[in-house]
Design a protein that fits this description.
This protein has eight helices and twelve strands. The chain is of the alpha/beta class. The chain has a five-stranded parallel β-sheet with strand order 2-1-3-4-5, with helices on both faces. A four-stranded antiparallel β-sheet has the order 6-7-8-9, covered by helices on one side. Strands 10-12-11 form a three-stranded antiparallel β-sheet. It folds into two domains: about 10-130, Response regulator (Rossmann fold); about 135-230, Arc Repressor Mutant, subunit A (Orthogonal Bundle), CATH 1.10.10.10. The chain is elongated and about 60 Å long.
Length: about 240
């Protein structure tokens, strides 16, 4: 029986083609989907556009090294990251863990061990998200994901928001990382019904959500990000 994680998307950020080929083959045998990036900038672009379930991230990569890529990923959210490196030094391991790596594998490695660690990290991440992810709190919002109820606190009084399903999904998605800029394409894929295929449809739903919040005295939420899309709140 295959693990429930099969089908998860792994971003393989590795500039050595031979190593990437081997890892891709082993991950494929376990049912994982993979996408490759051969430099740090491409890794960040793929992370933003594809939203992988996990990143295997080499430290020594062109353009942007793994530490900088990991730091940017952590600013965006909590995607699980396993560092791959030839540097077998405690200071490097501590650096990775301090920045936010979930695990650390030193080259040369057994690819079967890497796949086992991918399974383990995804399992831990899944348990954490199920335990803590039922209630989202991003002041002044509180969002009950299980019961599809969103409320806003004005003064000391919580008020339930009367939202459509799409508006609820948009608010919930952006409340996970309120300072992150979400592209219209991302929001279209994650929040809108399959029949809605136009990015301008996102603008319409966001506009309606914003109007409902303005009626309660909450101005400029979600905030527009020129040339990109939206974020829940303006950067301070």
């Amino acid at each position: 029986m295959q693990d429930a994680q099969t089908g998860a998307l792994v971003l393989l950020a590795e500039d050595e083609p031979e190593i990437a080929d081997i890892l891709e083959a082993y991950l494929g045998r376990e049912g994982f989907r993979t996408v490759r990036a051969s430099d740090g900038r491409r890794a960040l672009e793929s992370h933003l556009s594809l939203r992988p379930d996990l990143v295997l991230l080499d430290v020594q990569m062109p353009l942007l090294d793994g530490w900088r890529v990991l730091s940017c990923i952590r600013e965006r959210g909590d995607t699980p990251v396993i560092m791959l490196t030839a540097l077998d030094q405690d200071v490097d391991k501590l650096t990775g863990l301090r920045i936010g790596a979930d695990d650390y594998v030193v080259k040369p490695f057994n690819p079967a061990e890497v796949v086992a660690r991918v399974h383990a990290v995804l399992r831990r991440a899944g348990k954490a998200s199920r335990k803590a992810g039922q209630i989202l709190r991003s002041a002044p919002f509180e969002i009950d994901l299980e019961n599809h109820v969103a409320s806003v606190t004005i003064g000391d009084e919580p008020q339930t928001l009367n939202l459509t399903l799409t508006e609820f999904k948009l608010l919930s998605e952006m409340a996970r990382f309120p300072k992150r800029a979400y592209s219209r394409a991302e929001l279209l894929v994650s929040c809108l019904p399959e029949g809605d295929a136009l990015e301008r449809t996102v603008d319409s739903h966001v506009s309606k959500l914003r109007k409902k919040l303005e009626d309660l005295g909450i101005e400029g939420v979600p905030a527009s990000v020129r040339g990109v899309g939206y974020r829940l709140r303006e950067l301070e």
